[in-house]
């Protein structure tokens, strides 16, 4: 998709708003102990933040796997983000896939609670990166 500068900024803002809104849903899901859905929302909050960053840099989002590959190639391997952040994103993608598609896999309370703060921190790092670029 080819966007002019104004459109690009609007799409970036919409993706960030979606990331924040999606992350905000996690608290109620945790309260109700919907661990699989909470894991899904954590991942998607990261995915929307990552999408905003890719768009900010003129990169295509594409599929979930494509976004992860671009994150590693353009941000982790270049040192803009740490290998630990890259690994965390990949772990979240895997957790979401298991939660959504594997009926034999149960997401646990610890799976979710241990990932809330790292998710929030990675979203904040992405927002900071975007703010410096815009």
Your description of this structure?
The radius of gyration is 15 Å and the shape is globular. By secondary structure, the protein is mostly helical. The two termini are 19 Å apart. It has helices at residues 5-24, 26-31, 35-56, 64-76, 83-101, 109-133. Helix content is 78%, strand content 0%. The longest helix is centred in the last third of the chain and has 25 residues, at 109-133. The mean pLDDT is 96. The protein contains six helices and no strands. It has a single domain (5-133), classed as Up-down Bundle (Four Helix Bundle (Hemerythrin (Met), subunit A)), CATH 1.20.120.330.
Short description:
The chain has 134 residues and is mainly alpha-helical. Helices cover 78% and strands 0% of the residues. Helix 3 (35-56) packs across helix 4 (64-76), helix 3 packs across helix 5 (83-101) and helix 3 (35-56) packs parallel to helix 6 (109-133).
């Amino acid at each position: 998709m080819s966007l002019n500068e104004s459109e690009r900024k609007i799409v970036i803002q919409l993706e960030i708003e979606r990331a924040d809104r999606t992350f905000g849903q996690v608290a109620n899901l945790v309260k109700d102990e919907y661990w699989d859905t909470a894991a899904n929302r954590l991942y998607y909050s990261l995915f929307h933040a990552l999408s905003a960053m890719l768009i900010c840099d003129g990169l295509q989002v594409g599929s979930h796997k494509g976004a992860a590959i671009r994150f590693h190639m353009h941000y982790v391997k270049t040192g803009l983000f740490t290998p630990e952040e890259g690994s965390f994103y990949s772990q979240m993608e895997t957790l979401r896939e298991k939660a959504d598609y594997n009926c034999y896999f149960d997401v646990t309370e610890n799976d979710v609670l241990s990932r809330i703060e790292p998710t929030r921190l990675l979203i904040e790092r992405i927002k900071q990166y975007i703010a410096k670029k815009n």
